[in-house]
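Researcher: Going back to the complex we discussed earlier. I've cleaned up the inputs and rechecked each line, so this should be the final set. Can you rerun the prediction on the complete assembly and write out the structure?
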Amino acid sequence: MTGAAISFQREAVAEEAVTAYPAEQLRPIRWQLLLGFIGLLIGGYMGLLQALERVGVDFYKISQIKTYYQGLTLHGVLLALVFTFTFANAFTQYMTIRAYGRPLASTALVHASFLTAALGVVLAGYAILTNQATVLFTFYAPLKAHPLFYLGAVFLVISTWIVLANLLLTLRAWRRDHPGERIPLMAYMGLFNYLMWTIATVGIAIEVLAFLLPWSLGWVGTTDPQLNRILFWLTGHPIVYFWLLPAYMSWYRPDPGAGRRQAVQRRVDPADLPALPALLHPGRPAPPVHRPGHPAGHEGHSRGADLRGLRPEHDHRLLGHGGAGDGRPQGGRQGRARLDPAATLA
Amino acid sequence: MKVEFYEKVFVVLTVIVLAVGLVTIGASVVVAGVHVPSPAGRVDPRTVAETPPFDQPGLREIAPGQYEAVILARVWYFDPKEIRVPAGSTVTFRLTSADVVHGFELQNTPINGMLIPGQVTTMTTTFEKPGEYLFICHEYCGIGHHTMYGRVVVE
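Model: Rerun complete. Updated structure for the full complex:
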């Protein structure tokens, strides 16, 4: 690939990193990913039904879906909530394991995250499939759903909180063993996505727990539609970033597919970022990118947020450094990026 | 702090996009007459049908060429479904919902808002051209959502 300037450098990782994939944690992570993709499949199928309905082909009846809006609710909940949460949970947990080169602090929490997400899907899924929660994924009050729908939403959100708890515990454990070192980039990105997201979920948590759930259970008579709507979108708008950031993360850390036997770290230079969209077209060679004034030395790779010690950094221990002037190991193959971060989970 | 060339370019582009967006929004208010529906007060949705002006929905002339259209949205119809005004009239819509969240979009006009139970929404526009203007509920409100519409006839 002559002229390609997105030059991800590959370097074999030390043996310790290869043994760092704990099967007992990867298993629930895989299940959670699978749960998300089952959701994507069913939710996507509902989208197909909507399109077919427009041209007069009705697949709702044979799909056991009573109305267009019931299918639309299933579509929205599965794609905007279920797939988003479960994929981000699985991807972030996995990437954090890779970034630190060690298991997450708590295996129990990895299981707990999967189980709460699965419970949320079962509860909300029951309410929707029995046509007792045809309220779309925005569930604006005073459209009222079955209480289990709201409870399911709560459990789905809790599954993401559990992941954050585990990321924080893992950071603390890693810090203890690596005093003064910078957080590996992927761990940093995952952690901050989850911090941002957890702050954002305050809206939906208050909406559901303080208002909608008690109201749907009949404990309180009324609820304020305006207030509920505002609280919903306090969470609803950041959902977009919550699901987008894992995609960005995958760009920073495309997985060359070497998998378990030879974990590989690629480095993306910030100067290459404008060319990153080219990675979305893995079949095409990336356009040449000139990098005028690219600084020699390592500081060129570590700019960005410096949040009192939470500074992201590529893992030197995993990378190893060549003596090249631009801080890159020499002799690394230039590779085209492949966007299959989940491949090594299979 | 040294900033990479491409990073600089992207920062500048981002600022430009934001600035253009802000100017466009400002221009839409001044030039195109787009207004955000203002919260014009609250009304108890449980007694809205007995509360003026929603106890008598419909069109009334408040000055020559100036009208007020009071419309109450319910599952799944607007009351009234049709209003008729002469061309050149300025109409202030005063809207609310008696039950769930509804929407009110008057097609080919800047009138577009949500009707939230408990809140009164007002929007004003002038109808220059005669014709039929469809208004629809564009906020999901239940199984009959797509049957909820009406029209303004400008004569």
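Model: Worth noting: Confidence is low (pLDDT under 50) at residues 1-18, 258-346 of chain A.
Researcher: Good, that matches what I expected from the previous run.
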